[in-house]
């Protein structure tokens, strides 16, 4: 893919009539489907000067951006602000979530790290933790089941992935509260709207988080345990150098970043779709074998990320539009997963959808950077839904109000009120 004479040489001027439509994609609506449809039809490669980013909305183009590592590099290095000057001495390598490991390297560096890091989190490995995950989900529900109504985001969808990460990483129960704070604050660092004062406070917290994980790695080297950190330290691959301590830190932090907001968002979206389709809810309540399909259709229909960001290594032409080298490009996974060229009745939540369609969705990415934590997320969401449907009879929406959390990458509600019959 190289520029040609037919390609547009620069970004077209933003049409005032659809400018707000572009900005709404990052706004407060849970379902920007109408905006996506307009983008795919009229501006499949759109430039947003305010965000210094190109939006790619058609499925085939999104797949190209995600899979073509020759022309589209890893997530840009400027997605997080720099460490504040007063903390650079104690964070000389930056935030641990940005240590070069999975989301911010390309082959061949990425190939070695991924080959090693994915071994301990295969579907079979995660399945060994399923009973513990289910027990954790029940314990969380015990705290609110008698209330008959709750903001399920705060009561369940956020606590569950935090608890699962704690279990998988081997974090002691007494450290759960500060571990929870570190997880939430790490995702907040990607919010461009926070003030310098907030960023400094979050950065100070990252000093403690990095020291905690570094100490945990050292302890596991001395006394290995049955947890992911120990397995990442021990994992071997013929002909490959083992993961360094810094790489283990980076993998742990990036798994946390990728697995927290997205899992919480997918849980809420699945519950919303089930409650709005009571006939499907009853089918699933009576047949838990349908839950894996519910998970996949939820991730397709209401993808809990807005998109995947890459940076062009060369001038690239997509749909006749030249994207200059060094540009940030967002492959809008949410839009691609609703492209009518790929999915029949794409706006419909349909658990009877043709399996070949479901296999095409890109909610977990594709290619070399496909989400390494996919087995954890799928298990979290499936088990979480199973427990809620078992424990909360006559589950229903208590409010149609479902505002979205602001942000560039992740998409999840900031509230989801559900009600059920008290046991």
Structure explained in plain terms:
It is built from 17 helices and ten strands. It has 423 residues and is an alpha+beta fold. It has a single domain, classed as Cytochrome p450. The strands form three sheets. The protein has a five-stranded mixed sheet with strand order 1-2-8-5-3, covered by helices on one side. Strands 4-10-9 form a three-stranded antiparallel sheet. It has a two-stranded antiparallel sheet with strand order 6-7. Helix 6 runs antiparallel to helix 8, helix 12 packs across helix 14 and helix 12 runs parallel beside helix 17. The N and C termini lie far apart (61 Å). 43% of the residues are buried. The N terminus is likely disordered.
Helix and strand layout, with pairings?
Layout: H1 16-24, H2 33-42, E1 45-48, E2 53-56, H3 59-67, E3 72-73, H4 109-117, H5 123-127, H6 130-142, E4 149-151, H7 152-157, H8 159-169, H9 176-188, H10 196-222, H11 228-234, H12 245-276, H13 278-286, H14 291-301, E5 308-312, E6 316-318, E7 321-323, E8 328-331, H15 333-336, H16 355-358, H17 374-391, E9 396-397, E10 417-419
Parallel strand pairs: 2-8
Antiparallel strand pairs: 1-2, 3-5, 4-10, 5-8, 6-7, 9-10
Helix pairs in contact: 6-8, 6-17, 8-9, 8-12, 9-10, 9-12, 10-12, 12-14, 12-17, 14-17
């Amino acid at each position: 893919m190289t520029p040609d004479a037919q390609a547009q040489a620069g970004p077209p001027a933003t049409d005032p009539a659809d400018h707000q439509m572009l900005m709404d994609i990052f706004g407060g609506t849970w379902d920007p489907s109408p905006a996506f449809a307009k983008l795919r039809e009229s501006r499949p490669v759109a430039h947003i000067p305010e965000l210094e980013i190109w939006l790619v909305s058609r499925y085939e183009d999104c797949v190209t951006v995600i899979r073509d590592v020759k022309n589209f590099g890893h997530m840009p290095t400027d997605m997080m602000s720099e460490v504040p000057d007063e903390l650079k001495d104690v964070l000389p390598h930056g935030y641990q979530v940005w240590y070069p490991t999975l989301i911010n390297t390309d082959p061949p560096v990425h190939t070695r790290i991924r080959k090693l890091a994915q071994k301990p989190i295969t579907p079979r490995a995660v399945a060994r933790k399923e009973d513990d995950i289910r027990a954790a989900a029940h314990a969380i529900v015990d705290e609110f089941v008698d209330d008959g109504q709750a903001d399920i985001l705060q009561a369940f969808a956020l606590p569950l992935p935090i608890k699962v990460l704690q279990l998988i990483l081997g974090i002691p129960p007494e450290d759960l509260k500060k571990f929870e704070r570190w997880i939430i604050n790490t995702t907040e660092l990607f919010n461009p709207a926070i003030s310098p004062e907030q960023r400094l406070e979050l950065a100070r917290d990252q000093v403690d988080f990095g020291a905690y994980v570094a100490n945990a790695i050292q302890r596991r080297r001395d006394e290995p345990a049955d947890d992911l950190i120990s397995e990442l330290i021990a994992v071997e691959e013929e002909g490959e150098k083992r993961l360094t301590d810094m790489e283990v830190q980076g993998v742990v932090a990036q798994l946390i970043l990728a697995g927290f907001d997205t899992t919480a968002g997918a849980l809420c979206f699945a519950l919303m779709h089930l409650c709005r389709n009571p006939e499907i809810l009853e089918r699933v309540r009576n047949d838990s074998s349908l839950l894996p399909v519910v998970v996949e259709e939820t991730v397709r229909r209401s993808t809990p990320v807005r998109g995947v960001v890459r940076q062009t290594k060369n001038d690239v032409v997509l749909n006749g539009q030249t994207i200059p080298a060094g540009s940030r490009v967002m492959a809008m996974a949410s839009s691609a997963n609703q492209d009518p060229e790929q999915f029949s009745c794409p706006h419909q939540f349909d658990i009877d959808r043709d399996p070949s369609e479901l296999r095409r969705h890109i909610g977990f990415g594709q290619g070399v950077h496909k989400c390494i934590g996919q087995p954890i997320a799928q298990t979290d969401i499936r088990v979480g839904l199973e427990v809620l449907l078992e424990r909360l009879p006559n589950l229903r929406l208590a409010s149609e109000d479902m505002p979205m959390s602001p942000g560039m990458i992740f998409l999840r509600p900031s509230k989801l009120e559900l009600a059920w019959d008290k046991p």
